[in-house]
């Protein structure tokens, strides 16, 4: 009997040990820590028959892809070996109560000075999908950018059939000249800087450009297999159309939020946005061009050249000339509007769309292009931009530090909820009274309140499409339209059931967009146009979301290595 008891006890102990080990492993998987080293360094890179020094991460252009799982902690040590101050934004990550890891220079941190380092330490909570990272100071994101791939938790499937393979596709822009010098020259004259010389796909412009045979990205596929493309628009100033010759795409995710799948022959993606699509390699094996070209539906100069990469079936010789896709026309407003109307949240029990139905705070922001005095500029003025007629002035210290430590005189919380004057926003072009007021003025929001923000384009100088990005939050795009927003009629047409949820939204040319979000993330959160040109002109502000009553509802203390100004 003793032997049997011993055997039983030994067997039970063995089973318990296995169970505990599996449990510990499971906990480890759920709470993994991913560490990355980002060395910001200058490297000579050649494109379009020209070589020039560019700022890179780890000598790579584009920079490395950050891989993590939902629930992981991520530590990224950024060491700055370049001549410029640096900060990096993890675009689309919510950074709950942890704005210190958000990255925009002078908003949530002072920049990392040459020779210094800073560890971005954050948790990925309740998010999975494709996001991206980029420099958030000056125009350095022209070359300092890369993708973020957040995999679902272990054993949690995609809400669509598992693909056979996947590929990160990042769009960018390339200038022959030093981008910072181009910007300085434009600012000195009070004019827009010279536009880019090419667009790129994964850092390469493709064979339609000179000296680009080596600088063409190719993705190998096998007939009959399905592929997930994780697409990022890292361009500085251009909304882009994208298509693959002979192949439709099924949209399954935008800005790391699953969507109701729909099939399309082309995508529209604004700067700052991401889109995941499924592509079936179901055509006759061959070589097919993937192509990007800008969308611009107003007569404003734009780099309208087409960048290409190759969708390459296995075992097809590279001597086969690829076919080009049919992209929408550069000014195809109808395609743009109809494409965006197809975007819908998945809104399932596992992935609900928690749209705020009751609104605590209504905001109405008008976008304006204008002028400001500049003694050294042509005509004595320079171009500027504003929200509610306020051109934002960047502070000289981080706004989040000023908020956390209650520093006086850095900013005011009197940003108006509506513009100072009501007018026919999208009527005939307005070219008089284009001067704006200036200030570091923020909008204060009560913790956990629900906010509706209507962003209205205007014809001050010119109408134009503007992609707006909100840091620290996702929001629901509940309505959009052309012309002036009508508060008595338009809300009745809102989609409050399954509107798209995202972090960056395009305000249509001469139109408006309405977004809703719950202000449940304490801190200072940047809100700006993601066209770098307009951000530099002052088309930005920030929200101060107050601390909540709970112990986990207040901004965390700053890390010890937070850079100083």
UniProtKB/TrEMBL annotation:
Domain of life of the source: Eukaryota
Cellular component terms per the entry's GO annotation: apoplast
Enzyme class, broadest EC rank: oxidoreductase
Keyword Isomerase in record: no
Localization: Secreted, Extracellular space, Apoplast
Cited Gene3D superfamilies: Cupredoxins - blue copper proteins
Cofactor dependence: Cu cation
GO biological process: lignin catabolic process
One of the record's GO molecular function terms: hydroquinone:oxygen oxidoreductase activity
Record InterPro entries: Cu-oxidase-like_N, Cu-oxidase_2nd, Cu-oxidase_C, Cu-oxidase_fam, Cu_oxidase_CS, Cu_oxidase_Cu_BS, Cupredoxin, CuRO_1_LCC
The record's free-text note on cofactor binding: Binds 4 Cu cations per monomer.
Protein name: Laccase
Source organism of the structure: Lactuca sativa (Garden lettuce)
